[in-house]
């Protein structure tokens, strides 16, 4: 893929009113999601679920790409069409999660380092041949009394930069995802500090390793109160602090920024994104979504593992996709939720 194609892919990922659907849960994670609907996590059941997400009629109006998992990129729809072909035929770009998970960071209690660099060049070549246009690597940063340490942030962003270089060499757009977790009792101010520290380290590491940020998408957390914090920042505060942090720490020439939902409720994740775009129409980059749970939760509950519920489940996914599409242009409002 030429530089022009990388640029085209990156821009298409964040095309106006479109975002990414993350369906790249690892096998242990999708089992946890299936446990919530009391449904067994077998390969065929996982295939059936991903089938309904991938073939959702009309999804391509709001979704530019889907992030797949290694098992999923090799599977096919019930009529035998490879998932990647089905996506491409509907104008949706296949992406692929390529890290192999966050493992305990040696000598650093409660901190994680993401693994997956060994053999990555060969895996990327294979994913490219299977149709992947972009990739994802998630680093996890944990807020605690003594964390994150500089050592953990540095180790993770170094790996993110090495991954990004291998992706660009392979003609695949890297989505770099440093996720500051929201499952703690920290204030929004502390989340701002840690997100800033992480983004500064990330863009410094990308620069040192000659990564072209014009061919890179940032996937990040919002600046938000920890889930267990007694004082929860409101929607506008989250929007303002997130935008302030990004404007200060992300190069203007990046083609786009997308958010993870990180455990926010589906409606709140939409409202936060909408407030950012409604209050800031002139940002240097599009702000869009790359949600997993916040797009899938209502769909998964409506499905409940039953074939007879597929249509309802797909409608639920389409509804959330549409609401988030509006949030990308700051035109979402809560009335849209009751309209369906
Ligand atoms: P959530 O939106 O569920 O946080 O997942 C997005 C994702 O891809 C995390 O890596």
Walk me through the structure.
It is globular and about 50 Å long. It is of the alpha/beta class. An eight-stranded parallel β-barrel has the order 1-2-3-6-7-8-9-10, surrounded by seven helices. The protein has a single domain, classed as TIM Barrel (Alpha-Beta Barrel), CATH 3.20.20.70. The protein has helices at residues 3-13, 27-35, 43-54, 70-73, 83-89, 120-129, 150-170, 188-208, 235-249, 266-279, 293-303, 310-328, 335-338; strands at residues 19-22, 63-68, 93-97, 102-104, 112-114, 134-141, 173-180, 217-220, 256-259, 287-291. Helix 6 (120-129) crosses helix 7 (150-170), helix 9 crosses helix 10 (266-279) and helix 10 packs antiparallel against helix 11 (293-303). It binds 1,3-dihydroxyacetonephosphate (13P). Residues 22, 138, 177, 260-262, 291-294 line the site of 1,3-dihydroxyacetonephosphate.
List keywords for this structure.
TIM Barrel; globular; binds 1,3-dihydroxyacetonephosphate; 46% helix; 340 residues; 15% strand; alpha/beta; 13 helices; 8-stranded parallel beta barrel; two-stranded antiparallel sheet
Q: What would the average pLDDT be, to the nearest integer? A: 98
Order of helices and strands: HEHHEHHEEEHEHEHEHEHEHHH
Q: What is CATH's topology name?
A: TIM Barrel
SS-based structural class?
alpha/beta
SSE layout and pairing:
Elements: H1 3-13, E1 19-22, H2 27-35, H3 43-54, E2 63-68, H4 70-73, H5 83-89, E3 93-97, E4 102-104, E5 112-114, H6 120-129, E6 134-141, H7 150-170, E7 173-180, H8 188-208, E8 217-220, H9 235-249, E9 256-259, H10 266-279, E10 287-291, H11 293-303, H12 310-328, H13 335-338
Parallel strand pairs: 1-2, 1-10, 2-3, 3-6, 6-7, 7-8, 8-9, 9-10
Antiparallel strand pairs: 4-5
Bound molecules: 1,3-dihydroxyacetonephosphate (13P).
């Amino acid at each position: 893929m030429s530089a022009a194609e990388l640029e085209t892919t990156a821009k298409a990922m964040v095309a106006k009113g479109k975002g990414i659907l993350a369906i790249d849960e690892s096998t242990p994670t999708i089992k946890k999601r299936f446990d919530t609907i009391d449904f067994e996590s077998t390969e065929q059941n996982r295939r059936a679920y991903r089938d309904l997400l991938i073939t959702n009629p009309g999804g391509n109006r709001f979704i530019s790409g889907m992030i797949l998992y290694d098992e999923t990129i090799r599977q096919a729809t019930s009529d035998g069409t490879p998932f990647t072909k089905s996506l491409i035929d509907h104008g949706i770009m296949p992406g692929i999660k390529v890290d192999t998970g966050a493992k305990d960071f040696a000598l650093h209690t409660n901190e994680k380092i993401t693994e997956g660099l060994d053999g990555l060049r060969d895996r990327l070549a294979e994913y490219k041949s299977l149709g992947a246009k972009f990739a994802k690597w998630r680093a996890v940063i944990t807020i605690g009394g003594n964390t994150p340490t500089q050592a953990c942030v540095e180790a993770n962003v170094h790996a993110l930069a090495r991954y990004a270089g291998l992706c660009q060499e392979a003609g695949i757009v890297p989505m770099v995802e440093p996720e500051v977790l929201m499952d703690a009792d920290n204030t929004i101010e502390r989340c701002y500090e840690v997100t800033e520290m992480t983004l500064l380290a990330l863009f410094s590491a990308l620069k040192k390793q000659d990564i072209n940020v014009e061919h890179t998408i940032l996937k990040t957390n919002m600046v938000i109160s920890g889930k267990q914090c007694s004082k929860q920042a409101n929607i506008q505060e989250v929007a303002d602090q997130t935008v302030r942090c990004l404007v200060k720490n992300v190069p203007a020439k990046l083609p786009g920024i997308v958010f993870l939902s990180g455990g926010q409720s589906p409606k709140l994740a939409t409202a936060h994104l909408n407030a950012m775009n409604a209050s800031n129409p002139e940002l240097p980059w599009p702000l869009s979504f790359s949600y997993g749970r916040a797009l899938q939760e209502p769909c998964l509950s409506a499905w409940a593992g039953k074939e007879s519920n597929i249509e309802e489940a797909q409608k639920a996914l389409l509804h959330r996709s549409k609401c988030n599409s509006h949030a990308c242009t700051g035109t979402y409002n809560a009335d849209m939720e009751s309209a369906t």
